[in-house]
């Protein structure tokens, strides 16, 4: 039977995502009511700038006092789309203290304080949902947490940042350098004026921490995620990748160790073969490739950012949380029972593409090969070519290795840099997805 008393929602933040959430709640009110089994009402909207015109939102709902909105006693669900650590963290905690379930899109906060927030929600018998925090509209957290709850996930590899994928795709398709592609991304609104969070991999690392915790039923903090940005990726790297039948993506890679006793979580640019499904993810799209023991390989693909796509994920969570409220139940909370340690980057085993500028004279190749051998890194292929700038005394040497621990590779590179005949290490890139 349909309940007539509405479930009341406090919207905390009304920017690009919040305004879309409010719009969809209004325009789809009847469908949401039918799906939930009770009307759902926007009861207050907390903003920083009350004078801003917000089309479609009753000005009487606007307040600058988010805390008072949460404390007024009639709110059932809070939607936090403010972003950042504070005041979002305090507001979410306040919501739990006042019996209010929370839907959040806040990856930075969840990656940093997810454990404490889950504990607070659990103690209060409330929900904390955050599908929108990772890869925008793409259903990912619920499939990992619920649909695959009976399976064992061994690996998650994803493109979880649209800005960097747009830049890398431009470099790949036009031969542009990093700066030129970034400028285009900025002009088209894909990159922010300060792109640091995206291009240095911080945004992807937060998403990686959240996904790793859910996929492996353990706790992975933002600080556990190894992170390298993509600002050093060059047009020459793309040319090398092409020669290998690869492209370059900024990847979040989460793996369970072969012995099952630990996990790794990392974000860095990597070459992947053109035949890999992630290689065909173009422009600002996101995609996450999941390898599970019974299910096999799954790929989730779609828009990873933007007001309406992110609002879609928020609204999905709102419906779920409201249904739980009506059933006087809560959905799944944190599952961290495996308590697997997160291994350092040095333990990660993968392949490498290393480009060296070397003296072009007898014995150099042997010297370089010895360096790899001494560090236990086995070479797969070597390609040497005279430098295009002529000279004749220098050559470019590209070495692709078999799988080896990252620490062994670092040791190799350190030793290579000390060789007189190695004039420079032009680039080191991991090779994934084979
Ligand atoms: N800035 C992010 C991206 C979207 O480019 O994918 C929000 O996480």
From TrEMBL:
Record has Amino-acid biosynthesis as a keyword: yes
Gene Ontology molecular function, alphabetical: homoserine dehydrogenase activity
Cofactor(s) essential for the protein: a metal cation
Pfam families given in the database record: ACT (PF01842), Homoserine_dh (PF00742), NAD_binding_3 (PF03447)
Pathway(s) served: Amino-acid biosynthesis; L-threonine biosynthesis; L-threonine from L-aspartate: step 3/5; Amino-acid biosynthesis; L-methionine biosynthesis via de novo pathway; L-homoserine from L-aspartate: step 3/3
Keyword Protease (UniProt): no
Reactions it catalyzes: L-homoserine + NAD(+) = L-aspartate 4-semialdehyde + NADH + H(+); L-homoserine + NADP(+) = L-aspartate 4-semialdehyde + NADPH + H(+)
Function: Catalyzes the conversion of L-aspartate-beta-semialdehyde (L-Asa) to L-homoserine (L-Hse), the third step in the biosynthesis of threonine and methionine from aspartate.
Family: Belongs to the homoserine dehydrogenase family.
Name of the molecule in the record: Homoserine dehydrogenase
């Amino acid at each position: 039977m349909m309940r007539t008393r509405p479930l009341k929602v406090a919207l905390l933040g009304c920017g690009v995502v919040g305004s879309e959430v409010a719009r969809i709640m209004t325009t789809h009110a009847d469908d949401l009511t039918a799906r939930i089994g009770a009307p759902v009402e926007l009861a207050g909207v907390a903003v920083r700038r009350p004078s801003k015109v917000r089309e479609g939102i009753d000005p009487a709902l606007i307040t600058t006092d988010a805390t008072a909105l949460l404390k007024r006693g009639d709110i059932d669900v809070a939607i936090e789309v403010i972003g950042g650590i504070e005041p979002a963290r305090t507001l979410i905690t306040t919501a739990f203290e006042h019996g209010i379930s929370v839907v959040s899109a806040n990856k930075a906060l969840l990656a940093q304080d997810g454990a404490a927030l889950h504990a607070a929600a659990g103690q209060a018998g409330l929900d904390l949902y955050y599908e929108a925090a990772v890869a925008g509209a793409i259903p990912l957290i619920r499939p990992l947490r619920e649909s695959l709850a009976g399976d064992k996930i061994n690996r998650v590899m994803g493109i979880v940042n649209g800005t960097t994928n747009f830049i890398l795709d431009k470099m790949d398709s036009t031969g542009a350098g990093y700066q030129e592609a970034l400028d285009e991304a900025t002009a088209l609104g894909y990159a922010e004026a300060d792109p640091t969070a995206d291009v240095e991999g911080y945004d992807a690392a937060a998403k990686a921490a959240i996904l790793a915790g859910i996929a492996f039923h353990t706790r992975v903090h933002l600080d556990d995620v190894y992170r390298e940005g993509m600002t050093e990726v060059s047009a020459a790297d793309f040319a090398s990748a092409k020669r290998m039948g690869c492209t370059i993506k900024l990847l979040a890679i989460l793996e369970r160790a072969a012995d099952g006793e630990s996990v790794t979580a990392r974000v860095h640019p990597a070459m992947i073969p053109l035949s890999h499904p992630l290689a065909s993810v173009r422009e600002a799209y996101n995609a996450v490739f999941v390898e599970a023991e019974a299910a096999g390989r799954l790929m989730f693909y779609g828009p990873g950012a933007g007001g309406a796509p992110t609002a879609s994920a928020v609204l999905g969570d709102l419906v779920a949380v409201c249904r739980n409220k009506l059933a006087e139940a809560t959905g799944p909370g944190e599952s961290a029972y495996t308590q697997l340690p997160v291994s350092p980057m040095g333990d990660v085993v993968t392949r490498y593409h290393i480009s060296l500028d070397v003296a072009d004279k007898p014995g150099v190749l042997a010297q370089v090969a010895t360096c790899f051998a001494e560090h236990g890194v086995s070479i797969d292929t070597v390609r040497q070519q005279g430098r295009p700038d002529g000279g004749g005394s220098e050559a470019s040497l590209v070495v692709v290795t078999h799988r080896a621990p990252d620490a062994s590779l670092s040791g190799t590179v350190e030793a290579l840099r000390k060789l007189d005949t190695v004039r420079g290490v032009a680039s080191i890139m991991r090779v994934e997805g084979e």
